[in-house]
Structures are given as C-alpha cells and as structure tokens.
Amino acid sequence: MAGEDNNREARRGDDHEESSPLLQVNDTKINSKVDTKTAPIVPPPAAEEYGWTADGLPVSDGSVIGEPIGRNQWNSGLFSCFGRNDEFCSSDLEVCLLGSVAPCVLYGTNAERLGSAPGTFSNHCLTYSGLYFIGNSLFGWNCLAPWFSYSSRSAIRRKFNLEGSFEAMNRSCGCCGSCIEDEMQREHMETTCDFVTHVLCHTCALCQEGRELRRKVLHPGFNAQSTVVVLPPSEQTMGRK
C-alpha cells in the first residue's frame, strides 16, 4: 500500500509540473529567444531619393502635407524690356539701360545679389568683360559670355522655384512631357533651355533675371548692421537769480 501511495504522489507531482503556468511562461520565453536568433534580419527600407529642391522642400514628392508644390511664375516676361508699371519701375528702367550699355555690370550686380559674398561683383564682372571682348574681337558678337552666365539663370530658377522654359513649353503644347522620366532628367532639360535662352536672347535674359532679383533680394549693402548716432547735447545757458 505504501508503495502504491508513493507512485500516486509521484504521478501527481509530474502532472503538477506539466500543468504549472510558470513552466509554460519559461518555455514561451525560451522559444521566443530561439525564434529571435533564428529569424532573418530584415534590412531597413532605403531612404527615398529626392530630386531638386526648392526652399528646402522636395519638388518631386510634394510639400510636407502631401500636396504638390506649384511652380512660381517670373515677375516679368523675357521680352518685357521696360519691366512693369509698379514701385520697381525706375529699377526696371535702370536694368534695361545696364543690359543695353554695360551687360557686364548688370551680370555682376545679379551675381552679387544672388551670392552676397565679398568680391562677387568684381570676380563675375571682370570675367564677363574678358569673355565679352574676346568674343566680339574674334567672332564679331558676344558668343562666349553666355557660356559663363547661363548658370545664374538656373540658380535663380532653383532658388525661387520658378517655372523653366521647358516646363512652360510642355504646359502650353504638352508635347515634351512624355520623354521625361524623373525629376533629374527634367532638370537637365531645364538647364539646357537656360543655356539656349542666354545664347539666343542674352540681353533679355540678363534683364529678366535682374528684375526678378531686385524684387526678391535686397542689395548686400542694405544688410549692414545699423549704426547708432549719438547727437551732442544742445547748448545750455546758466540762469541768473
């Protein structure tokens, strides 16, 4: 009898161990550890490559709230020689005069407003002047300076998210959008159109860029720190009693 009782107690102990919830929890922890070790490591998703940006926002992927970013229009047309009849009318006439008489000065001022770095005006103006005189001396027309100055048009277009010539032509006729696959290829086409614009309509392109910059960027000379002027006290008189 004693032996049978011992066997029954041993069986009850085994059943209790098998049905113990603590053992089940330990088993699940061990199995989870084994699964995590044997599970394949999934690499993180690759970062999405954005195209050209405007003011820090990706153009190809829309704005931060998911809406597409529309291109801005130029403030004046390419052939608007005298500009617009607004508060910048006198500045537009100055731009037209500089573009006709001294395009090197106009290009230098445009680069100075765009770059705002010390020596920007002199470096760009002198380089443009050298190419201008070489082109007119050897070929009879200003054919070398546009190769140097067209990059400023691309920089202005990217900085202010302006509509380029290729996009404007595609919007008007719709015959060129099918050959563009991504934003990078579109930017190459826009840069090519900027170069063609400077070669064929060089003076008009410089004037359009000058009018655009004068309406959106202050001259670097106005960005200086304010100075405090201390006036001397007015003349004082002693009163007699």
From TrEMBL:
It holds the Pfam family PLAC8. Residues 1-42 are annotated as: Disordered. Signal peptide: none annotated. InterPro entries: PLAC_motif_containing. Residues 1-19 have a biased composition (Basic and acidic residues). NCBIfam families: A_thal_Cys_rich. This is PLAC8 family protein.
